[in-house]
Structures are given as structure tokens and as C-alpha cells.
Structure prediction request, 402 residues.
Amino acid sequence: MKNSSRPDGDYPVWDIDPYDEDILREPRDYFATLRELGPVVWIEKYGFWAIGRYEQVRSVFGDWKRFCSSRGVGVSDFKTEKPWRPPSIILEVDPPDHSRTRNALARAMSPKSVLSLRPIMEQVAETLVDRLLDTGSFDVVPDLAEAFPLKVFPDAVGLDVNNRHNLITYGAMVFNALGPDNRVRQKALANATEVVPWIIERCKRENLTDNGFGAAIYRAADEGKLTNDEAALLVRSLLSAGIDTTVTGIGNAMLSFAHHPDQWELLKADPSLAKQAFEEVLRYESPIHSFFRTTTEDVEIEGVDLGEGRKISVGLHSANLDPRHWVDPDTFDILRKPTGHMALGVGVHGCVGQMIARLELEVLLTALARRVKTIEPDGDHVWRAGNSLRGLDHLPVTLRAA
Ligand code: OVM
Prediction:
């Protein structure tokens, strides 16, 4: 790794591996110490900066000029290292190039087209929850967290496919590739030869239905706003970011409620709280623990000179747990209304699919709240070590019908 020698100055230097698999599985203590050490900390093992306090996380994400995405949003610097795939033309790019692709994708996923998905999502959610109540005991991760997005999201994009689990595998590749060259990354990328060609095929116009988000993206190409190659890459972005994130969000929501039955009682008593309850899940068990930015000039944070071309690990989950910003951050409280949480990012790169993600979770939590009396853990849950995502491998539960 180039440019990883320590810059001059007075700042905390921390000899820790944030990608230790135990820390990836449960990063709360790591993040608490990171926030305590200072507003910006040098991680010696990898030669990058790390920030974990709300204020700095928010301001770095709000300043794309000085903290860019075009050199990659992971550990690797695209300026000096070759990316594992052609970079995303929306995630891994800065304005002004970013603005055109972002606008095209935002228009393809307009509020109107997103909201039109509600009836079908409700139907899928109700059928799925009824089936799970018949089963009684099951593993939330495959049977609910994966099952629901794998049904509704590919349909919404316009994918007409059987091997839907490949989408989970590809998401794991994309998100784990953002980490260092550790075992987690290597295991995920070992699936590339099989899954990448399949994904590329799915992104072609002729393999998409004519009524989904995919077709809407290709219509922007027909209007001259994108090339056909760009349209294919934006469909790839939907398939990269649209599944594992919501899978993780559902799993983390179920874990939160399984461990906080008082909060489940509140939601059951008033299922219209589902929307704000999911915001609290996003804050309390954020699906993405961190993304990187790269400094484009000599920048300073709280008196520390970071230097140009330096990687910064931005702790999104950490910001959401920062006691400098939140009252009782370690309390899961669905009545809190955690406006300004960082789970979906902020600024020009703020999650473009957030309306769909929120709709999926609102619909699913509403269906559960109307039907499920209790969510009981049925054995130990298992966290998955992820280089960017914080999600579960297993969450065995027993549901009882209301
Ligand atoms: C993309 C992409 C990939 C991963 C995450 C993401 C959270 C976007 O390929 O554009 O946003």
C-alpha cells in the first residue's frame, strides 16, 4: 500500500486491527474506544485514518470535494491499485460526473414508481409471515431476511431469474471487497468467476422485463442521458447495493425485537409505528459499519493534518452510537425518532434506494406486527464477519401467532 507512512503531527495512533473477525462481528467496543481516543485516529496496521464521532462522520460525508469517492470507498486506493471490477459509475465517482448518473438512477426509481410497489410487497409479506407462523421455529436469515428481498427486489428491477441466491453472493463480494485483503475478502471474491458473468448477463436490456427499474434506466439511455453501457452499469449498481443491505436490515430488525420484547409490544399495539421503528433499527444496528473516503488535498480535522491522498474509514454505525450526539445511544427505543442518523449516509452519495429499503421494511414490520404475538430467540444468534456490512449468519427464533 502506497502512502501509508505516518504523517507528521500529534494525534492518537492505535495499534488495532479493525478487520479482526471478532471486531467485525461485534464492533461496538472498537467503536467506543475509537470515539474516546479522539476525533481522528491513525490506524497503524493499515495506514489509514479512522473517525467514529457523529460530528466528524457527518462533515466528512458532507464534503465530497475534499473527501472523494472516486478513489474507492474501501481500503484500496484506486489511484494506485487496480479495482477488482470496473468501478461503479455512481458510488465510486465524484461530481460533476456523479451528478448525471445519480439523476438518471433517482429518476428511474422515482417516488411514484417506488410507491406503486406497495400492494405487491404487502401481499408477499403477508403470505410469507403466515407461512413462517405455520412453521413456528426457523432461522430468520435465510427464511425471512433473505426470502423477502429476494422475492420483491429482483421483481421490481425486472429480473426474470431462478438462481436468485447469486444476488446475495454478489452483494457479499461487493461489500467485502471494500476491506483489506483478508480472509473475509478472499472467500467472498472466490465466487467471482462463477457469479460475475451471471450478473453481467442480468444487466443486459434483453434480459430485463419492460416494466421495472431496469427498463426505466434503459429508457434514460434512449433519451440520450446515458449510454447503453452506462445503463448496464447502473443496473449492476442496483444488484450490488439493493439486496444484501435490506437482507441485513431485516435480520438486524428481527434481532432487535427478539431481544427487546417491550419494544415489540409497543409496535404490536400500534403497527403504524413500523416506519419510525425501522429508523431506530438503522441507528441501533446499522447494516453498514463503515465506508471510506480519500482526501483530495491537505485537509485538517480538529487540528490534525491528514495529508493528501489519505484513506479515512468513516464509522457510520459508530456515529449512530455516539453519546456526544444521542441520548442513551445504547438503548433501543422505537419511539425515539432518530432523525439525522448516518446509516444511509448523507450528502450527494446518500442512499439512492432508501425509499425502497424503507418501504420494504415498513411493509414487512407491519405484516409481522399485525400477526405475531411474540418473537423468541431459539438458541444463539451468530454474527457474520463482514468488511462493510454488519449482519447475521443465523438468528433462530420461534414466532407465536397473535
Ligand atoms: C454500486 C454500489 C455497490 C455497493 C454499495 C453501493 C451502498 C453501491 O455498485 O453502485 O451503495
